[in-house]
Design brief:
Blueprint: E1 3-10, H1 16-22, H2 24-30, E2 36-44, E3 49-56, H3 59-75, E4 81-86, H4 90-95
Antiparallel strand pairs: 1-3, 1-4, 2-3
């Protein structure tokens, strides 16, 4: 069963186009993560937050990614990473056009 992973953390930038340029290689490498279906990158310059919403094939893949990603972020100096793995209510989500079909 697919699992949704929500991750956020304090982040001072870069944001927007500068972030896109700086993290393109990382974004491309994330496509190779086991079980990843898709990722939406999230950012808030106003709140100084970065993160993402991910869809994984299963909880094992989501949990393994969260462990690895937390360690990667901590190596970059980010001390508090918030990650939650969610079940998805597919029937309701499809009513609202979620990209999970």
């Amino acid at each position: 069963m697919s699992k949704l992973l929500q991750v956020d953390f304090d982040f001072s930038g870069p944001f927007g186009e500068e972030m896109s340029r700086a993290l393109q290689g990382l974004a491309e490498s994330i496509n190779n993560e086991p079980g990843l279906i898709w990722k939406i990158w999230t950012e808030s310059a106003a709140n100084k937050l970065g993160g993402g919403i991910y869809l994984f094939e299963d909880e094992t893949s989501a949990s393994a990614y969260l462990t690895m990603h937390t360690a990667r972020l901590q190596a970059m100096g980010i001390t508090e990473v918030r990650g939650i793995i969610f079940d998805i209510n597919t029937p309701l989500s499809l009513i609202n056009k979620a990209p999970i079909a």
